[in-house]
Amino acid sequence: YDGGAEEPFTIAFQDSLPLHDYFALIDDHFALRKHLEELRSDLADRTHQYRVIQKRLLVRFKDRNPSPLSHLDTLLALTYEQTIQLTDAIDDVERALRTVSCHLAAATELVLLLIRYRFGLDEENFQALRLHLSPDLCDTVDQGWEEKVDTALMHLLRTSLARSAKDRATLPPPMKVPQDTLKLKKRLTNVVDRLANGGRICGDTTASGGGGEYAEEDEEQAAGQD
Questions:
Q1: Which of 55, 82, 117, 186 could form a disulfide with 13 if both were Cys (CB 3.0 to 4.6 A apart)?
Q2: How many CB atoms lie within 10 A of CB 92?
């Protein structure tokens, strides 16, 4: 020991980011969202059908000379059973979605930390990235985590992490529920790639245009699919 000052404590991560496993969680979360949406649509159809059958039965019961039921009572009972089954299925999917949402939130926190230590982000850049790749999952009927994060990452790629004036001049499309998670995963990969090439959200925002180890597809091609 020579009495000199000790080196400051630092945390580093040198391995590749586990994006493949993270993307699998995103796919699971999105698949449950889509399944829940389909079940709710089916439930709306069944409840509408139930009300229509009820009205027809009431009309026949009030008629002085009622016509045969033509198995409307059987159809009413069957529709009721299907409605109960759908509500049970919705409860199951909602519970599964809450569980997967917790897993995705935890995985997002982990990925954010690994990105920070892998590329040496300071506190300001880390917090800015955390605002765009948010670990706070709050899905609603109209908006979900995937489209909100996708829009936020697209904003990054066209502002702070843009590679050219052409990227900055491109107008973002309106937010909508995507058909799949391909664009989200491509944009997240491109954000990681530009951070790996020295790009920063705050401060020095010069992003290298070269393809890094995480690059899967040029962002201009992804933007052209919007």
A1: 117
A2: 12
